């Protein structure tokens, strides 16, 4: 009887694998999985990437979703797709999906596909930059529709203060400093600070903050992380406060932060947890409606970073903020 039960279990496991192999047995679908390695794309964007009709793309995505190869993520009225976040079990299905991902990730993207991805990221970046250009004067008011600055800045500052008792931060980078409200904290605990923003209007406000606060160890640079990578800069601490939901490819921020950090460096972020309040896109210039904590952990691991302390802050308006730290070496936590 035991042998019969074991045979039935094995047969059930094999049957569960069949939809996965069937759904992945198509070159286009494998390419879709490949571009979803770190990015999240909507149906229209994927149709644009692969130059096909939306109805045809929707069919492929439906089959892959049903097989567990990807999962939908609602962003307001739009549906985006990503790889599944939870593949930690030892079930044969999860193991098989992980092996498929590992296999397709070893194949480089063709240049034309990479160019189309960059075009979509540029569209997203232009959208975000245009918003901040239009609303620079109302920046603080717009942001505080979601969360008052102190609600996330103080926990981040406390995390940095606590770590600074053990670590000497020689050089720090803040990505997207906005009006520069957090720069006094970094200036106090770090010998040299770079503030990087792609909005000239925001940098002008940050410059005024540095003058008013008499911060003499701050360099303000207009550009993106590629700007600093090209210069060969290196930092002990990288901070991104409420920035990820404004950038075209949040996963790339983790890769760039890791590349910009010295060994033993720390990446500290605060950002929104996943939510369904679509008005934030129109009113606050958000590209993404927050993130699952597992998404950030996965992106960090892909960049070679190890998750450290984490804090979750619930707000009365229904939003939740996550404050996270990620280290370049686990031994430095």
TrEMBL record:
Q: Which GO terms describe its molecular function?
A: DNA-binding transcription factor activity; S-adenosylmethionine-dependent methyltransferase activity
Question: Where on the tree of life does the source sit, at the highest rank?
Answer: Bacteria
Q: Which InterPro entries match?
A: ArsR-like_HTH, HTH_ArsR_DNA-bd_dom, Methyltransf_11, SAM-dependent_MTases_sf, WH-like_DNA-bd_sf, WH_DNA-bd_sf
Domain (HTH arsR-type) ranges: 11-108
Family matches, as PANTHER family: TRANS-ACONITATE 2-METHYLTRANSFERASE-RELATED (PTHR43861)
Protein name, per record: ArsR family transcriptional regulator
Organism per entry: Marinobacter maroccanus
Organism lineage reads as: Bacteria, Pseudomonadati, Pseudomonadota, Gammaproteobacteria, Pseudomonadales
């Amino acid at each position: 009887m035991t042998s019969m039960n074991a045979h039935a279990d094995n047969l059930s496991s094999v049957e569960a694998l069949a939809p996965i192999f069937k759904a992945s047995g198509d070159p286009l679908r494998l390419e879709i999985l490949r571009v979803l390695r770190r990015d999240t794309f909507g149906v229209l964007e994927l149709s644009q990437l692969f130059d096909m009709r939306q109805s045809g793309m929707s069919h492929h995505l439906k089959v892959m979703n049903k097989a567990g190869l990807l999962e939908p993520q609602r962003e307001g009225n739009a549906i985006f797709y990503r790889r599944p976040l939870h593949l930690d079990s030892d079930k044969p299905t999860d193991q098989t999906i992980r092996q498929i991902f590992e296999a397709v990730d070893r194949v480089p993207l063709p240049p034309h596909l990479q160019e189309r991805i960059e075009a979509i990221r540029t569209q997203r970046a232009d959208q975000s930059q245009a918003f901040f250009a239009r609303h620079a004067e109302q920046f603080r008011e717009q942001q505080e529709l979601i969360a008052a600055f102190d609600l996330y800045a103080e926990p981040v500052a406390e995390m940095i203060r606590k770590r600074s008792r053990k670590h000497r931060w020689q050089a720090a980078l803040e990505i997207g400093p906005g009006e520069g409200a957090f720069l006094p904290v970094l200036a106090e605990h770090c010998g040299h600070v770079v503030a990087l923003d792609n909005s000239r209007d925001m940098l002008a406000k940050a410059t005024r903050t540095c003058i008013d606060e008499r911060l003499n160890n701050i360099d303000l640079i207009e550009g993106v992380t590629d700007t600093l990578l090209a210069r060969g800069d290196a930092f002990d601490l990288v901070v991104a406060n409420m920035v990820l939901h404004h950038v075209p490819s949040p996963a790339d921020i983790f890769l760039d932060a890791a590349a910009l950090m010295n060994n033993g460096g720390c990446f500290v972020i605060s950002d929104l947890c996943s939510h369904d309040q679509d008005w934030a896109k129109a009113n606050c210039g958000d590209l993404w409606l927050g993130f699952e904590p597992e998404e950030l952990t996965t992106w960090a691991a892909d960049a070679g970073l190890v998750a450290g302390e984490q804090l979750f802050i619930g707000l009365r308006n229904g939003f939740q903020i996550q404050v996270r730290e990620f280290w370049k070496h686990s031994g430095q936590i």
